[in-house]
Prior knowledge:
Strand content: under 5%
Distance between the termini: 91 Å
Number of helices: 4
Structural class: mainly alpha
Radius of gyration: 33 Å
Low-confidence stretches: none
Order of helices and strands: HHHH
Largest sheet: none
Mean pLDDT: 78
Amino acid sequence: MSSPDGHFSRLAQLAQRAPESAHADEVPAALANRVLLRLRNEDRTTVSAWEWLSLRALPLAAAMAAICVFLNDDLTPNRPDDELRLAQAMIQEQLAP
């Protein structure tokens, strides 16, 4: 792998040999984004702690969510008659003198 100094010196030499153009003051579109992405990709020798933790925690979080859904469905039986009785009691209280 070549050094960053070699890349910079080669870039400087090529820039000196480039012909003058009428648009010399303009920067090409998305040049900053391309440069930053390339620098980030070259510097990726280590993984950040947050990235490591998030990738390790994802299966655990998915398992916990599945368990919660299973337990919630199992522990709360579906009883529409209880809700109906409650609604009827509330209506009778409102109608009673």
